Each structure stands twice: as structure tokens, then as C-alpha cells.
Amino acid sequence: MRYPESLLKLARALSRLPGIGPKTAQRLSLHLAFHREEAEELERALNGLKALGVCRICGNLAEGDLCPICQDETRDRSVIAVVETVSDLFALERSGEFHGLYHV
């Protein structure tokens, strides 16, 4: 039996994501096909990415001109951490130890 084209397209799109191989993409596609509320929630979340941009100051992700870190007046503006990726920035933020600004 051949899968419906819409399911194949979804599986192909999912398999392009890091850490998701063809089998996982197929399982996720089938799950979403039978759980419409979850599929709709995922659709809304993906559509929300359209509002996401890049901070004009530091290069972090932002839902406007400035990211929350650059907007935060309590940050130590005398220290800037230069990071390679936004993932690196998030890792430093999770540590709770750095209170300066960033440049991605």
C-alpha cells in the first residue's frame, strides 16, 4: 500500500529536521494524521515562527526589533559574550551565571 501524498510530504519535511530520520518522520506523520488537535497545535506553533526575526543589536531571536535580553535594562551592559549560535546563547542563559549582553 502506498501512503497518501500529503502524509509523504509531511514525512519528508519532518525528516529534514535534525535528529529525525525517515522512520521517526513516518511515525510522527501517522501520529499527527490521527491526532488532529495535536496537528493543529503544531500548525499554530509553526505559523507563530513567522513573527520571529533577528535582534537588530545582538543577532538573537526576537519577536520585534529587539530581543528580550537587549530590552532588559537590568543586564550588565559592560560585558558582552560573543557566541557562535543562538543555541550557545540559550545554554549560557540556562546556566543563570551570565548577566551581560551577547553578540551572536
From TrEMBL:
Task: Kindly give the InterPro entries that the UniProt entry links to this protein.
Answer: DNA_Rcmb_RecR, Rcmb_RecR, Rcmb_RecR_Znf, TOPRIM_dom
Q: Which domain of life is it from?
A: Bacteria
Q: Which UniProt keywords are listed?
A: Coiled coil, DNA damage, DNA recombination, DNA repair, Metal-binding, Zinc, Zinc-finger
Toprim domain ranges (all copies)? 78-104
Database matches in Pfam families:
RecR_HhH, RecR_ZnF
Q: Which residues form a coiled coil?
A: 25-52
Q: Which PANTHER family match?
A: RECOMBINATION PROTEIN RECR
> What's the protein name?
Recombination protein RecR
* Organism encoding this protein: Thermus tengchongensis
